[in-house]
Every structure is written in C-alpha cells, then in structure tokens.
Amino acid sequence: MYDKNNVFAKILRGEIPNKTVYSDDNVLAFYDVAPRAKVHVLVIPRGEYTDIFDFTQNAPADVQVAFWCGVRNTVEKLGLRDNFRTVANTGRGAGQSVMHFHVHIMSDERFIEDF
Ligand code: AMP
C-alpha cells in the first residue's frame, strides 16, 4: 500500500527541497542526494505508485507514456544521449528504499569500460 509520507511524496508536495532537472505535469526529475555515479538523477511520476509493478498495472496508458517521455526529456536535458543507464529497483530485497516508483538515470565514463 502507498505511504503518503514517503520522502518522494514529500518532495512532490514541496515539503522537502530537491535539485530539479526536469519537471512537467506528469513527472519530476531531480538529483539523487547520495549519488553513486558522476551523474545520478531520479525520475518519478507525480501519481501515487509504489513500484514498477504497481505503475504498469494501475497507471492509465497515457500516464505511462507520459512518464517515459519524461525520462527521455530528462536524459536529453542532461545531454546523456548515448551513455547512461536506467535502473528501477523493485522490492526491499532488490534495494528499493523509497516506495514511490522511480527510475534512476546514471551516467559515468567508466560504463564504456564495463562492457
Ligand atoms: P532506491 O534505493 O532504488 O529506492 O532509491 C532511492 C534513492 O533515493 C536513493 O538513491 C537515495 O539516495 C535517494 N534519496 C533519498 N532521499 C532523497 C532526497 N531527499 N532527495 C534526493 N534523493 C533522495
């Protein structure tokens, strides 16, 4: 069940500050407070969805499309067209610590050497 007091809900309500990268009617993208890559940004939908399962099952199709457009717009704004990762940790066991659906966008020159 969605907890309205999770940290991203507070950010969306303006109760906690954030460093916004991109914002529109459907998404908010902001810098991760504890970056684990040279560029580390989080993209969240404005609606109340706990994780990718909840989002893809319960968000209307137009909201889902708008979310991924927001991810794309964020990547373009960051100038990361061809060197970034997207990650959506799902469940505590996989490291999800904030139960409001979010996608990590991470970029680091080391990625080229990883593969
Ligand atoms: P996850 O572990 O996949 O749930 O990712 C949650 C992310 O939120 C972590 O990378 C945290 O560093 C980040 N985070 C937690 N609180 C804040 C905050 N107030 N502002 C920005 N990022 C945050």
Terminal CA distance reads 38 Å
The level-1 CATH class: Alpha Beta
Report the strand count. 5
Structural class: alpha+beta
Tally of discrete structural domains: 1
Query: Given the structure, what is the number of helices?
Result: 4
Hetero ligands: adenosine monophosphate
Spans of 5+ residues with little confidence (pLDDT < 50)?
none
Strand content: 15-25%
How does the overall form come out from the CA principal axes?
Answer: globular
What is the CATH topology assignment?
HIT family, subunit A
Helix content: 25-40%
* Rg of Cα set: 14 Å
The sequence of SSEs as H and E is HEEEHHEEH
Task: Tell me about this structure.
The N and C termini lie far apart (38 Å). The chain is built from four helices and five strands. The chain has one domain (7-114): 2-Layer Sandwich (HIT family, subunit A). The mean pLDDT is 95. It is of the alpha+beta class and 115 residues long. The longest helix has 18 residues, at 61-78. Helices cover 30% and strands 21% of the residues. The protein binds adenosine monophosphate. Adenosine monophosphate binds next to loops.
Describe what is shown at a glance.
The chain is an alpha+beta fold and 115 residues long. It is built from four helices and five strands; from the N terminus they run αβββααββα. A five-stranded antiparallel sheet has the order 1-2-3-5-4.
Task: Please describe the structure with a list of short key phrases separated by commas or semicolons.
five-stranded antiparallel β-sheet, binds adenosine monophosphate, HIT family, subunit A, alpha+beta, about 120 residues, about 30% helix, globular
